[in-house]
């Protein structure tokens, strides 16, 4: 059996190789318009991955900014510029921009999170001076983007409202008040010092985790809570969404991780969430499984569109697939809450996930078979590894 020194050396070698390959992949996927979602190929072109996606470009910017590579650091802002150039008159940032046709796409029912991620990434680059004065340069676009988001905000809960299939989980039934989206919204409010952030945090905890909250004072909130408390089985995690008379208790791993990472949960509940996700083993063998309990066809939450491309069956894609990109944020959340040993272990598993399929950096893995699925050469997997690697060394510090 290998001794501890040998094992430690192999682990260090794996992390170093994944770091180098992540940088190489991102450089390979760079274009004058920004970072592509995936390495160009006949398949990726056909599926539209050869475009500048709002959320992908933003997550990539977070990783590129801390990569230690001068080329990637300079190029981190390029995709954000392209997205800003195609900002809608009302302030919305597009879901993606087809750079070859200079055409922006805003998705079927609108894409709400591209605007949120764009603002978060812009702040991160500005904090590191990549380049200096970035937020000042884009002050008008920032103002419009925030104005558009505020138009989606409920004026008593101060949470964003959205249609289903309108965020990163674009073949899922989450709608109304969505956990993932509002974790990002709170972070935007914190970074840009927007009004009502305290109310947003209170409503976030009152609606998405009513189990430990007091009786809601606002009668609309009491009604929403009543439906949840009557039948939910998910008291150790935030709900994935809350609508008028239905909600999601499938256990959205990404939304819960972001809530922990961005400080929406107090320390005691943050630790409880991290323990619960470990108990559900969503980090094994690779981080991170997208949901704890996939939505099945017999569920009231199942929608016919989830069978589109035969993609969102249980344990696949957003419905229980394993996403290395989410794994990067999982590592950062562990590090931010003092779980360095667990964070390092998950970072190693993240590197192993990226290495599958001959360093394929595949978009996602099957949640039960652990086989690589989706597009090869996914940019945000490489960026999330770089982001996680930095967060571990910086004890969870995200920007600056």
Topology:
Elements: H1 4-28, E1 30-31, E2 34-35, H2 42-46, E3 52-53, H3 54-65, H4 70-75, H5 78-85, E4 96-98, E5 103-105, H6 113-127, H7 134-137, H8 139-150, E6 177-178, H9 179-192, H10 197-208, H11 219-231, E7 241-242, E8 247-248, H12 253-261, H13 267-279, H14 324-336, H15 340-359, E9 364-365, E10 372-373, H16 379-393
Antiparallel strand pairs: 1-2, 3-4, 4-5, 6-7, 7-8, 9-10
Protein architecture, described:
With 400 residues, this protein is mainly α. Helices cover 49% and strands 6% of the residues. The protein contains 16 helices and ten strands. It has a three-stranded antiparallel sheet. It has a three-stranded antiparallel sheet with strand order 6-7-8. Strand 7 and strand 8 (247-248) form a beta hairpin. Helix 3 (54-65) runs parallel beside helix 16. It is globular, with a radius of gyration of 20 Å. The model has no long low-confidence stretch (mean pLDDT 94).
What brief labels describe this structure?
400 residues; mainly alpha; 3-stranded antiparallel sheet; 16 helices; 10 strands; 6% strand
State the gist of this model.
The protein is mainly alpha-helical.
Give the DSSP E fraction (strand runs of 2 or more residues). 5-15%
Number of strands: 10
Mean pLDDT, all residues: 94
Give the strand line-up of the largest sheet: 3-4-5
Helix content: 40-55%
Please, how many helices? 16
Largest sheet: 3 strands, antiparallel
Extract low-pLDDT stretches.
none
Radius of gyration: 20 Å
Question: What class do helices, strands and sheet pairing give?
Answer: mainly alpha
Globally, the shape reads globular
């Amino acid at each position: 059996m290998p001794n501890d020194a040998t094992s430690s050396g192999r682990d260090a070698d794996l992390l170093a190789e994944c770091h180098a390959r992540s940088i190489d992949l991102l450089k390979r996927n760079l274009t004058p318009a920004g970072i592509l979602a995936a390495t160009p190929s006949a398949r990726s072109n056909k599926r539209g991955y050869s475009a500048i996606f709002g959320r992908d470009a933003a997550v990539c910017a977070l990783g590129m900014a801390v990569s230690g590579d001068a080329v990637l650091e300079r190029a981190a802002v390029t995709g954000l510029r392209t997205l800003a150039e195609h900002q809608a008159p009302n302030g919305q940032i597009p879901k993606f921009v087809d750079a070859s046709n200079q055409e922006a796409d805003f998705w079927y029912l609108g894409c709400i999170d591209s605007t949120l991620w764009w603002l978060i990434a812009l702040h991160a680059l500005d904090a590191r001076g990549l380049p200096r004065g970035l937020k000042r340069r884009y002050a008008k676009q920032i103002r419009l983007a925030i104005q558009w988001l505020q138009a989606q905000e409920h004026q008593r809960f101060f949470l964003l409202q959205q249609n289903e299939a309108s965020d990163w989980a674009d073949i899922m039934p989450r709608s109304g008040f969505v956990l993932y989206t509002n974790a990002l919204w709170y972070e935007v409010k914190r970074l840009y010092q927007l009004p009502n952030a305290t109310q947003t945090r209170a409503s976030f905890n009152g609606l998405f985790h009513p189990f430990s909250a007091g009786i809601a004072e606002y009668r609309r909130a009491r009604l929403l809570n009543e439906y949840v408390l009557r039948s939910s089985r998910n008291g150790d995690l935030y709900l994935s969404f809350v609508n008028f008379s239905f909600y999601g208790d499938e256990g959205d791993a990404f939304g819960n991780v972001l809530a922990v990472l961005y400080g929406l949960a107090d320390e005691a509940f943050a630790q409880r969430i991290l323990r619960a996700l470990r108990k559900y083993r969503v980090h094994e063998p690779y981080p991170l499984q997208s949901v704890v309990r996939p939505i099945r066809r017999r569920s009231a939450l199942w929608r016919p569109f989830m069978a589109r491309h035969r993609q969102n069956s249980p344990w696949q894609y957003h419905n229980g697939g394993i996403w290395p990109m989410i794994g990067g944020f999982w590592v950062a959340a562990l590090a931010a809450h003092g779980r360095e040993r667990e964070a390092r272990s998950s970072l190693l598993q993240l590197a192993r996930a990226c290495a599958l399929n001959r360093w394929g950096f595949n978009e996602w893995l099957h949640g039960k078979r652990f086989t690589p699925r989706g597009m090869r050469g996914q940019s945000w997997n490489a960026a999330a590894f770089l982001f996680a690697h930095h967060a571990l060394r910086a004890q969870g510090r995200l920007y600056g």
